[in-house]
Amino acid sequence: MPETIDSAVQIARDNAPYLAESLSLFPDCPKGLKKKGAGDYLKTLFSGLPHTIGDLDSEMAVLRQLKRHAHLGIALCDIGGIWDWDSVTEHLTQLSDIAMSRLLQCCARAQNIEGTADNPVPGLFILAVGKYGARELNYSSDIDFCVFYDPDIIALPNMTRAERTLIKFVQSLIAGFERITVDGYVFRTDLRLRPDPRSNAVAVSTLTAERYYETLGQNWERAAMIKARVCGGDKAVGQDFIDHVLAPFIWRRSLDYAAIEDIHSIKRQIHATKSGDSITAAGHHLKLGYGGIREIEFYAQTQQLILGGRQPHLRTMRTVDAMRALTDFKAVDPDVCDSLIADYAKLRKLEHAAQMMEDAQTHISPADNHDRARLAALTGYADLADFDHDLVTLLKRVHGHYVDLFPDSESLSSPVGSLSFTGLEPGPGTIKTLETLGFEDIDFVWQSTASWLGGRIPATRTERARELLTRLAPKLIAICSDAPNPDLAFRAFAGFFTRLSAGVALLSMFLQETDRLADIIKLMTSSQRLSDTISHQPAILDAMIEPSFLQIDIDDLGAGYLALVNDNTENAGAFENAMNAMRRAVHEDQFRISAAVLSGRLAVDHAGPALSKVADCAVQAMLPVAARETMRVTGPLNGDYAVLALGKAGGQELSLSSDLDVMVIYRPHSDDLGVHRQFTKLTQRFVSALSAVTAEGRLYDIDMALRPSGRSGPVAVSVDAFARYYDEKAWTWEFMALTRARVVASSSADFTEQLDGHVLSALTTARPDLDTAGDIADMLVRLRREKPARGPWDVKQMEGGLRDIEFIVQKAYLMQPNRDLDPRPISTEAMIAALTHPLNAASLDVSLLTQATRFYHQLTQALTMTVGTLSDGLDANQTGQIAKILGTEPAELTARRDDYSHLIQGMVTRYIGLS
């Protein structure tokens, strides 16, 4: 041994700065190891601590000096080959247990908690998990543990502040381990293996833990808890928790398909290829990389989870013991067992050596040749080439055994590399794969997916949903990676998925119809409005199942609305049922139209007519429903009635954000004084039918300000009052609005004809008392002042925009001597085409007006379908989306907007007289 220790000292001095410094601090350590022997030397060191527990500061100093001294002795025994990895990890674990025991007593005393040296806080216990639990700590390991307490047993000085007291207690305990002082630190700690660490405090009640493990505990947590042991505190309570809470959670006598598939995927999903050809010694992750320590551990643990429920003898904590037990059970080939155990020992020695160099929590074989040569020397190699060759051979051998485990299970990895969403954080392979796939916000993608797989959202509360998502996750990642902006695509899906109340049906559809998932993500990334719609109304996705989803025939839109609302019309709940049914149908058709435009299946020019047809049919279906609801209260309606649409609804130029400008006009059958009240109720019911917010949302915002006398006038107008108003009282702006008036729904054909006649008469009868040209100029000045553009893309209200065009066209129409046209032009483009008066030819460029109107309407549709609401500006991505819809480039889009605005402003100056 003396020569071995001397050799280890020289290797340590030459290759590990941390150990070289430790040798200067404890120069007698090598001599003591040679004189007493390694085991007795460490035993004496551990037993030589002060018997009295001091305050936190003094204990931290004692334990840090002990750690540094023990670290040196353990490292020399490791380098010199005196101890194998079992002995090394056992002594490191003893060191941690000693520190845990002393710090528990120290922190309990500081909180005035009454207990004993063996049980400082009755009812509270520390559960060591992972390598700490299995007594397999590596040289510079974090220690993984959980703090639990039984609320029925624990007694604190002030139970009203129990939670705060326990938090301070654990915080002091953690500080005792890892606070860096002049003497360094003892161990870094990790408490993230406690139940739901993002929600629960650092000390978790046993009742909370039991509920968690019964409902949300994941298979990777079962794997971690295989190694759980009580390392401090109330050992009786802790062992009872292991026996009665953890054991049933870990060891299940029967596993359903979802659990087995998830177990298979815990690590199997990490690797996309069996070849391992990319393995190199330089920069390889010895723990998480191909052929690394984790593969051997999971090789044993996954089989333990599947078989251990029925075979208690397989429930061993230590990896090598599990391998031997599985071999005895004939679940592992003896040669494979021997190979993996031998390679596990070599990998653990390599891991320790990598950490000895700087006392760093690293698992990387250095990429730099000089640093890797130091690692090689610490593990007994004189030649770097030999070291590299042997390491790569080992890693490939381990990886080959690993990928042969579960050879028939479905591959859940990405074709380009590693993808794993189990554990506490993404592994290096997963990070590299996500980066290769184009993701930048790796943490969000990983944390979101891991959270979903952990059942932390309503859609994945059931095991079936988690099973489906486990299989879908790699496909989802691949689809998002194909998007122009993968992070945006994933965030769009996440916003929708986290709002789902249930996920099994939809996830099943996505697995069967992956193209549908791709279509949805494409829609959500191309349109913030559609993304919001899908997120808040996920049921709307049912429409995508239909083969004809994107096949829009405007003539067929709304064809089934009447039948839809005519069911169950005799009961009191029929009105609300009809409103909800109509909202679902209209929202679905609006979604279809938008999707068809955004996917290029429907020309953007057709969006206005299509959306207007949907609105027309909705009005035509809901008007009789409102009438039936009115008659249920008032009796039969005493007259005919109709809905007159104006504005964009009248001109069939609706966008997704348009209000419906309407009037309700009636023709009484008698002079009964109750008739007006009856039709007022009908109007109120009709407005509610379209605009009330129900469980299915709102159908349309209704604006009735254009009715005679505006908001001060009656909501329902008799046909005679309508005619008199335009003959005697209407203002110029009301005639402008009337140019786009159109009867949308009526109780009788002859009333429609009569009302059409009144509209035409109002538009063609001279009103000498009005200064049409002067009024129009004054109104445009006022509107420009009171309702200016909200930004450079507000093409309706900007100067030279759509509002200016409408003023030009409506003035031209109202000032034509011959306005009795058949058919009467209603849309803006139709009115432009009807500008034939010689006076107009000199000042109005009909071609320019047509082109600008069409461009502005296209732009409006694209803006409302993508951005949703106008803001001060558009980002580059939004501008690109809109340009794509219009079949142009972003720069050209902006140039056309500016050119048309300039030209139309010139026309306003010449024709309306504004400067």
Structure description:
This protein is mainly α and about 900 residues long. The protein has 5 domains: about 1-85, no CATH class; about 115-250, Beta Polymerase, domain 2 (2-Layer Sandwich), CATH 3.30.460.10; about 255-410, Four Helix Bundle (Hemerythrin (Met), subunit A) (Up-down Bundle), CATH 1.20.120.330; about 600-765, 2-Layer Sandwich (Beta Polymerase, domain 2), CATH 3.30.460; about 770-915, Nucleotidyltransferases  domain 2 (Four Helix Bundle (Hemerythrin (Met), subunit A), Up-down Bundle). Helix content is about 55%, strand content about 5%. It contains 39 helices and 10 strands. Strands 1, 2, 3, 4 and 5 form a 5-stranded mixed β-sheet that branches. α1 (about 1-15) packs antiparallel against α16 (about 370-380) and α3 (about 30-35) packs across α4 (about 40-45). It starts with a helix and ends with a helix. About 45% of the residues are buried. Residues about 265-275 and about 840 have low confidence and may be disordered.
